[in-house]
Design a protein that fits this description.
It contains 12 helices and 11 strands. The protein is an alpha/beta fold and 292 residues long. It has 3 domains: 80 residues, Arc Repressor Mutant, subunit A (Orthogonal Bundle), CATH 1.10.10.10; 96 residues, Periplasmic binding protein-like II (D-Maltodextrin-Binding Protein, domain 2, 3-Layer(aba) Sandwich), CATH 3.40.190.10; 99 residues, D-Maltodextrin-Binding Protein, domain 2 (3-Layer(aba) Sandwich), CATH 3.40.190.10.
């Protein structure tokens, strides 16, 4: 098996994340020609083109995009090994604020925070439950977990994975109203709204859901409240599969229905490259959220 120079891999990773050779060279404290030679050397070793120039910026080719996923995992692992070997996890301290939806904050973040506490016991983690990306721009949060990619140029965004969601209801609700066997059976069922029923209908109608505003008989802008209404028998609601798996008292509706897919984006500001505490939290979140 061919061995690759870690410096070449690190040069590729920095260039992919920074978007240009000049920015990557500054980040790695190298000259731009040196960095360019390292990227070219990796392309030669692999026999593929990793970047193509678009205007003044570099854009990953298909081969580069595929390689990036593996190289990021290598880089994150190397960072964790270095921290653990030097004992620096124990010295990382300060506050890091994570913002996520209230449902994700309550159901998915606690086990990740428990792991962070073991890795860096002096860190203080503040969870900001909400969906406003401006939390990051106002520096009210350091890292955001979102389901849409932010378009602000000052932010770094990484697509972690696409997650699956399904429709659920309480067993006692289904006992009372009947278990739907087809999409047409949903006409007579109650649904739980998550504040924007118009948007939900726009998404569901192309999937063949024959429901209208009249089907939404309860709801809340709070995802936690809406999910609890579902759990207590007020109707049917969509939810991420991994959240539903952690919730007692719900049953999947139309289990053969194709899942709703939605992205999980991890977003932060450019201090990711200079702050050890943000880097550690970001990497742990990325690793944990990548596993359904």
């Amino acid at each position: 098996m061919k061995e690759f120079d870690w410096n070449h891999i690190r040069a590729f990773l920095a260039t992919a994340e920074e978007g240009s050779l000049s920015a990557a060279a500054r980040h790695l404290n190298l000259t731009q020609p040196t960095l360019g030679r390292q990227v070219s050397a990796l392309e030669a070793d692999l026999g593929v083109l990793l970047f193509e120039r678009v205007g003044r910026s570099l854009q990953l080719t298909d081969s580069g995009t595929e390689l990036l996923e593996h190289v990021r995992a290598m880089g994150e692992a190397a960072d964790r090994v270095a921290l653990a070997a030097s004992g620096q996890n124990q010295t990382i301290e300060g506050r890091v604020a994570i913002t996520a939806s209230d449902v994700f904050s309550a159901y998915l973040l606690p086990p990740i925070l428990a792991r962070l506490r073991k890795l860096a016991p002096k860190l203080v983690i503040d969870v900001v439950a909400g969906d406003d990306i401006r939390d990051i721009l106002r520096r009210e949060a350091d890292i955001a977990i979102r389901h849409v990619r932010p378009d602000q140029p000052d932010l770094i965004a990484r697509l972690i994975r696409d997650a699956d969601g399904y429709f659920y209801a309480a067993p006692d609700y289904l006992d009372r109203r009947g278990r739907p066997r087809t999409l047409q059976d949903l006409k007579t069922h109650d649904f739980i709204g998550f504040s924007d029923n118009d948007r939900m209908l726009e998404y569901l109608h192309p999937m063949g859901f024959p429901i209208t505003h009249d089907n939404f008989r309860a709801g809340s802008a709070s995802g936690l409240v809406a999910w609890e209404l579902c759990r207590q028998g007020f109707g049917i609601a969509p939810m991420a599969e991994e959240v539903a798996n952690k919730t007692s008292g719900v049953e999947r509706v139309l289990p053969d229905l194709s899942p709703i897919t939605f992205p999980i984006w991890l977003t932060t500001h450019r201090e990711l490259h200079t702050s050890r505490k943000i880097r550690l939290v970001f990497d742990v979140l990325a690793e944990a959220l990548a596993k359904p």
